[in-house]
Amino acid sequence: MSIIASNFKTNHTRKSTASFVKEVNDFLVSEEISNDVYIFPTSTSLDSFDTVSNFNIGAQNAYATQKGSFTGEIGTEQLEEFEIKTILIGHSERRHILGESQEEIAKKFSFYSNLGYKIIYCIGEPLEVKEQGIEQTLEYVYEQFVGIDTNYENLILAYEPVWAIGTGVTATNDDITSVHSAIKSKINKPLLYGGSVKVANVRDICALPGVDGALIGTASWILEDFKQIIKNTKDL
């Protein structure tokens, strides 16, 4: 069964998100889709959405707290208002643009795993590491598991090579297969691929050995494209 997840990043409004979620939900029902679908809207667009059981809404980020004095952050008090129990942790944009250290990420992971949240945990390497070869790539990626309980039952992994995110450059099938097979041999968890996944390539990518679905950015923000992506992978 393929898992299809959409990271809205800093896109869509409260109004457009509500419309988007309703349309996707209706589509899952009408097309009888049984695959798991996730959408991660902006925190300002979180709400109590009426969705089928295989359609989950998650948070892109939250602080490791129930509530408190953390300006600009949200915690479990805000998530629980909308019964949200799914979170994205370790995304490369939070690592590289917003400066989250592995120590901070591990703390967040520990906090949310202790509460039983479904966690999609992101890993991936920048271009200068990729160019050094597969051994260096794997060494870099495995360092992103320091402090992370990879046996956690509600864990989904997402391999996102940083050089392929939002660049239009997709990793080759060989790139994806070699990294996925190495990770899967060590950690027995669903493993998604992310990085310039789109309508045209999603089926081929999700059909690769060791690929259990996709975490999608840009191509998932357009409703018709996201529906087509779900449709293209529904029998995998």
TrEMBL record:
The record's section on SUPFAM superfamilies has:
Triosephosphate isomerase (TIM) (SSF51351)
Catalysed reaction(s)?
D-glyceraldehyde 3-phosphate = dihydroxyacetone phosphate
Q: Do you know which InterPro entries this protein is assigned to?
A: Aldolase_TIM (IPR013785), TIM_sf (IPR035990), TrioseP_Isoase_bac/euk (IPR022896), Triosephosphate_isomerase (IPR000652), Triosephosphate_isomerase_AS (IPR020861)
Compartments in which it is found: Cytoplasm
- What's a Gene Ontology MF term here? triose-phosphate isomerase activity
EC numbers listed for it are 5.3.1.1
Protein name, per record: Triosephosphate isomerase
Specify the species: Poseidonibacter ostreae
What lineage does UniProt assign to this protein's organism? Bacteria, Pseudomonadati, Campylobacterota, Epsilonproteobacteria, Campylobacterales
